[in-house]
Amino acid sequence: MILVTTAGKVGSETVRLLQERDVPVRVLVRDPAKAAALAGAGAEVAKGDLDVPATIEDAMAGVSAVVLVSPAVPAQELSVVASAARAGVEHVVKATSKASADSPIARRRWQAEIEAGLAASAIPYTLLRSNAYMQNVLALAPAIAKTSSFGSAAGKGRSGMVDARDVAAVAAEIAASPAPHAGQTYWLTGPRPISNYDVAAVLSGLLGRTITYRELTFEENKDAMIRAGVPEQVAQMNAQAFSLTADGDAEWVTEDVPSLLGRPARSFGQFASDYAHAFS
Ligand SMILES: NC(=O)c1ccc[n+]([C@@H]2O[C@H](COP(=O)([O-])OP(=O)(O)OC[C@H]3O[C@@H](n4cnc5c(N)ncnc54)[C@H](OP(=O)(O)O)[C@@H]3O)[C@@H](O)[C@H]2O)c1
User: Fold this and answer.
1) Where do runs of H (alpha helix) occur along 61-124?
2) Directed axis angle between helix 164-176 and helix 9-20, to 10°?
3) What's the average model confidence in pLDDT over 239-265?
């Protein structure tokens, strides 16, 4: 049995792909109604909360591997690691980012803290260090649909954006056959680095109207996210990441997705075409 913690962008697709492979899978969610489609396709749904260790403990029964993907709050994910160690789990696949203990971005420091806790647990594990998810662009979709424009503090910076479905495909592949991946760190990206001007050009071509990209300051970008409903702390971390992107921080691409999956990583064009309905 594989446990996937949360059914967000990566978790839900990981569960779906494991089901497709007939691998028994359980998903921990706060609200089972949100996982109804996964349950309907045969996944076990464990109602739980990462802030409530007893619910993690219940979900861990009979589990051989864990796909650890959640908002990366150290207390929550370290509870999962501790529970997995007690249950004798044989492998953890951890979704992470450019983690660093001295990053200016709190989320990357939290990831480093979680990674250190995982390393100290003695459970064999694999790190999936992903570049920005293409699905982040979906947060801009309502503004794009309404105003045919979007803005960011990423300036002209390019990013090796990866489709979260490819991150999920890698997570499912490793969770299903973990042994060769123990101790490995994979850097997951799309096929090429692209800027927001490229994003605007792809969306313009796809939607048949001009989509304009505006370069924003850090404060403008943070305020826009807060106005769109993003919690202040998350808006701060996102705007920091975009500002670093402007300076080249995300301009990295690897061959890890194709070499692990035996097929090319999805391009932004493929992503946009699959999600076109969200932008129109
Ligand atoms: N976005 C990026 O560009 C990017 C890039 C690299 C790495 N990452 C990493 O990827 C991970 C996030 O993955 P994702 O984008 O797939 O996540 P996501 O789509 O944001 O989903 C997070 C899920 O966590 C659930 N959740 C939140 N608090 C919970 C709690 N207390 N107990 C149980 N479930 C809870 C949410 O469920 P509810 O529906 O109940 O709220 C939601 O389904 C993070 O580690 C992040 O740093 C992200």
Assistant:
1) 74-87, 106-121
2) 50
3) 98
CA end-to-end distance (rounded Å), the chain: 40
Q: Which mutation among 3, 4, 6 tests ligand 1's pocket best, with the greatest number of atoms within 8 A of CB?
A: 6
Q: How far apart are CA 273 and CA 267, in angstroms?
A: 10
| Ligand 1 binding residues, C-beta < 6 A | 6-11, 30-31, 34, 49-51, 69-72, 76, 95-97, 107, 130, 132-133, 136, 164
pLDDT at 280 over 90: no
Q: Output the six-digit token pair for 59.
A: 């979900």
Name the residue of 16, 26, 30 whose CB sits within 8 Å of the most ligand 1 atoms, as the mutation to test its pocket.
30
pTM for this predicted structure? 0.98
pLDDT in the model for residue 171: 98
| Residue 118 CA to its chain's centroid (Å) | 18
